[in-house]
């Protein structure tokens, strides 16, 4: 089934991908530089918005009779907090400031506040960028392969196809949405779920046995432990808050919105690297830049783009040049689209519709004969 891309990604070959020098040549010069003051201004913007939203939340009575009001608050607060997540993520890429100590401090504090192990995720996210849409070495949303070998490919695709066929399209789609959006992020942090087979059973909090150490090379092990200190401090703060104001308050003001933040995160990583006619690659068919050009830009609208610093509508250039700060990504995306229209991917399908199409149709992949490409299959 074709997506809004109309099979465009399937028509791109490795030879069509420009090299990094050609890409840099078409980008406005200022796009390659970051400004500490500008980055701090965007941080202040997101912090101010979040403080206002939380202040409103603290004024709402904790009353079950107004549960719809609380649900609306959770959606709004989680959506605005995602802007802070994006800035922390930018720190992990070295795109926030040339002052590395300041950048690390900001990213570490913001991610720890959101219960994200900063250095652990920095490492796994670097792998995700290096091997985007690689069938074995990729680190997020790597699909199961029909008749895969379980070594270079994750076997078990035929089982998922069979399960989907038994459940039916609607039930399977709902199951996948809940599995990915609600449980996907903690499952990834705790077990490396949806990561490729190369790194085995990984854990972002425990970099040694009984979990695999393949993701955590020697220099990263101590950084994982350092990430844990930030999480522990955040948890201690939450426990103290709960003892002072009650767990219900902590749940209403912090935990429920955090679930919405996690849903946004999975939405971005899932939608921007998955579509019914976007392949995964293996062997010599893969290169880092070719994988990056399989990233898909999508329409989120002006409000979400403002709150989330355009992370979804400029995701392709982010993967091609992850050191670029978000406030240059809009101009860089226009330049990229104009210079390389054959390989730039933009899917205009509305986000909720795209989520449903992917959850019901991107079930497992099969390897094309005489090719290093893996394409999606489903039983419908």
Mean pLDDT: 96
User: What distance separates the N and C termini?
Assistant: 10 Å
> What's the arrangement of strands in the largest beta sheet?
1-3-2
The ordered H/E elements are HHHHHHHHHEHHHHHEE
Indicate the proportion of strand residues: under 5%
Helix content: 55-70%
Number of domains: 1
Q: What are the main properties of this structure?
A:
mainly alpha; 3-stranded antiparallel beta sheet; 56% helix; globular
Care to describe what's here?
With 380 residues, the chain is an all-alpha fold. Helix content is 56%, strand content 3%. It has one domain. It is built from 14 helices and 3 strands. It has a 3-stranded antiparallel beta sheet. Helix 2 (36-58) packs antiparallel against helix 3, helix 4 packs across helix 8 (218-245) and helix 7 packs across helix 14 (351-361).
Detail the topology: elements first, then pairings:
Elements: H1 20-26, H2 36-58, H3 67-92, H4 100-113, H5 118-130, H6 157-167, H7 169-191, H8 218-245, H9 247-271, E1 280-281, H10 288-292, H11 301-307, H12 315-320, H13 326-339, H14 351-361, E2 364-367, E3 373-377
GO molecular function, one term: oxidoreductase activity
EC number: 1.14.99.33
Keywords: Iron, Membrane, Oxidoreductase, Transmembrane, Transmembrane helix
